[in-house]
Amino acid sequence: MDAGGLKPNTWQKFERLSSAWNRAKLGFEDAPHGDTEGEPGVVANPRRRARTPLTESQVDAIRTARANGESVVSISRQFGVHRMTVWTHTKDLL
């Protein structure tokens, strides 16, 4: 099948939907086993932090570091969180 001028992301979505549609037509019991080409696998070591809340001691450490003049970016790198998370916890200190 031709991409028909679609953008790459749109084409990938189309292929996933088409694959899901074909599997549904076959029935989930009749789906070929072992044919996992193109399907995402299990992520053993995620690259980004899970969305777990910060502990109170971490929030206190972030606030202390920001009050001492440390930059938001350096604090975010130190704690492995997004800079907006640091800003959210320290915006009342300004």
- The general outline is elongated
Judged by helices, strands and strand pairing, the structural class is mainly alpha
Ranges where pLDDT stays below 50 over 5 or more residues in a row are none
Number of strands: 0
How large is the radius of gyration? 23 Å
State the distance separating the first and last CA atoms.
57 Å
Strand fraction: under 5%
- Order of H and E elements: HHHH
Query: What would you call the quaternary organization?
Result: single chain
- Put simply, the count of helices is 4
State the share of residues found in helices, binned by percent: 40-55%
How would you state the average pLDDT, rounded? Answer: 80
Quick summary of this structure?
It contains 4 helices and no strands. The chain is an all-alpha fold and 94 residues long.
Notes on the protein architecture:
- Helix 3 (72-79) packs across helix 4.
- Helices cover 50% and strands 0% of the residues.
- The protein has 94 residues and is mostly helical.
Question: Which properties best describe this structure?
Answer:
mainly alpha, 50% helix, 94 residues
Helices, strands, pairings?
Blueprint: H1 8-26, H2 56-67, H3 72-79, H4 83-90
